[in-house]
Amino acid sequence: MSVDYQNPTPESVGAFYDEVNTIVAYAQGGSMHYGYWTGPDDDTDFETAGIRLTDMMIERLAARSGDRVLDVGCGPGGPGVRLAQASGAELVGISVSENDVRLANEKARAADLTDRVRFEPANMLDLPFADESFDHAMALESIVHVTDRVRALREIARVVRPGGRIVLTDFITHEQAGEKADDTIVKVYDSWRTAAPVPADAYESFAEQAGLVLDEVTDITDNVKYSGMWTYLALREYARSNPVPPEVERILGVFGPVFNGTADKPALSDEQVVQGWQQLLAKKQVQGMIIVSAHKPQA
What we know:
alpha/beta, 11 helices, 8 strands, 16% strand
């Protein structure tokens, strides 16, 4: 029987990342977001694949020296720092996780960028910035935690100047309207405090409602689909020799007992885990990811 997605709140998302972000960043090559692979024969490591996706966002944003960029949902700061280094722009990053903010500011200090890069706690649904105070905005795998995407887009659009670009990634579903997702998929999303994925064609309406002009929607599902497998395997390996918080145990336990099984539910072997993921990846992907580029029209 299928189940419904839970609705994450800014408070629950912040508490989740306060607890897991250092471990997840370790598992995902440091940046704490999906990676981009060219195909099944691409043996790129997660760090490189993650930087590849970050660079795709930076290229689309096209910020220049002197621009002011908002990094919406900054994580531990990797993409924001990289954008500032590549473009020369000033960057302000936000997160609902205080631990994210701390780690991101440490990264900015290590890169000697504190004169034009800073990170602070804030909620994307209620940004503490004046209207039209940024040239552009980037939201790399952060709007996925928001149930009301239009409200988030309106708030981001509010603080971006006319002509400014907004580039983001979001989770999508190819399920038909009214069709419920498989309960295992739902549990995966819920274990990551992720809102329900949106229909693949949703952003035309979202952009219009938020007062934005939609420039690009690119489906990168077949390039990022390996991220879940590599994240799960890395977390599993980490948990073998390190204590992990309950939230990581929950992530690992979605597919069944990890190390301490019972007679009724034996623990999964490494071979079973890999085979299960390979079978999943070989199927047509019902859940996926898109890159969205839009701009705020001139007044």
